Amino acid sequence: MQITIEIPDILGNQLQTNPGNLERKMLELCVIEAYRNALISSGKARELLGFSTRLELDAFFKQRAVDLNYDLSDLKKDLNTLETLQSEGNLATP
């Protein structure tokens, strides 16, 4: 989807430090806002931004002070996965 918006020149000049960069910055802002509002998952954010790993996305979010959407249900799923891996012998216990 392509969207055209008008912004004041002073703001446009501040956002666009080099040619083509403004489009990327606007994409990043839209992805961040969608992620913060739980409209997209971290996997979709990673895909939209063109990152190949979760670590790249985590670093990107950290640089921009974006909190990860990680709640109690995520923790429970991770703990279940950990227990499964340990019981199968696929993960060494400390």
UniProtKB/TrEMBL annotation:
The family database entries (InterPro entries) matched by this protein are listed as:
UPF0175 (IPR005368)
Tree of life domain? Bacteria
Q: Which Pfam families match?
A: UPF0175
Q: What is this protein called?
A: UPF0175 family protein
